Amino acid sequence: MPVRFALLTLVIITPVAFADSLNCRQVGWCPTYDEAMKLRVVGNYAYVADFRGGLIVISIADPTRPCEVGRYDSPGFAYDVATAGNYALLADYGALRIISVADPANPTEAGSYSTPSYALSVTAFRDTIALVACSNAGLRLISFANPASPREIGFYYPSPAGFVQAVAVQGDVACLACGDQGLRIVSIADPTQPEELGALATPAYAQNVTVAGRYAYISCLDQQVRIADISNPRAPMLVGACQLENQPYDVAAADSIIYVAATGSGLRVLSVARPAQPVELGYYNTPGLSYGAALMGNLVCVADGNQGMRIVEYLPSGIQEPDHNTSGSARPSVQRGRFLPGNGLLVDATGRIAGPGPVQTGVHFLIETDAGRGRRITRLVVLP
């Protein structure tokens, strides 16, 4: 299969020294039992694959107070979750589990299918078919039209021997993150006979993939998210890349913006309006290891490992918030900003240079400690 490359620009993004966030703020948090890995949002609920904790159902009707309303304790290790109607599909390491969530407070297993290898990723297709990335057993297409008795109806195995790490679907086309084999694009128009359409080599191990519009966003183990144009599925082409300080694990996308869950770097917000030149718009450094991201309107739910699920808001115009202190004295409002190491400049949330730091007339740079969370917060304080 021919592989084409386009000239691309690599944007390097690293957490800014001392910074906690830029143009993002946390609005809600809910603990989970174990390690929140991946999640899906449907209506007022977030469905969280919680590794040893199974499936957690969290109400997000009030984003400032998300709360657990139901749990299914699966016997395996819950890596990923998808939804289809009244069912949640759980990739539970050695099995696909079909879980009824018709009553979110009482999720119950309706059926299961033992997979030939580890089930690492799952997505729904045509409401009654689960596409399961089964590591060294390829892609498995499992019908759950009868939830009590799911059955395999087709499979695809990348050649040469490939490891299917993750799957994403758009229309009748599935995109697969195939480890050392990069990206594979497969037609599933006939689910009983999946057919490879195209392939794209990635310079590093392809761990995860998200599809939005004409682009696939591939999380690779060299700490890069690679952007591939898949508008011609028979000739996919790399068009951009973004390198993070830590490992990107999942991507949510909407309106030329991607939200990257990166282990060790929290949530990163990037503009991909020009895919060859991604631009960082904001970030929120979570206390856990961020494995998953899912959109809920203008908010992002983040699966934050052993720190549960967080709800983060991205505000393009920047953040103004009161400066909380215990002295009782009047304090000005604060705006989160960033310090550019090496040149001593302060940059506010709009990206404008506020002047040489750390202190000058009009602005100064503070590092404060939030005693409740035990972490440093960097702020630009606007003085009278």
From TrEMBL:
Signal sequence region: 1-19
Gene3D superfamilies recorded: YVTN repeat-like/Quinoprotein amine dehydrogenase
Keyword DNA repair attached: no
Top-rank lineage group of the source organism: Bacteria
Keywords, ordered alphabetically: Signal
Name of this protein: YncE family protein
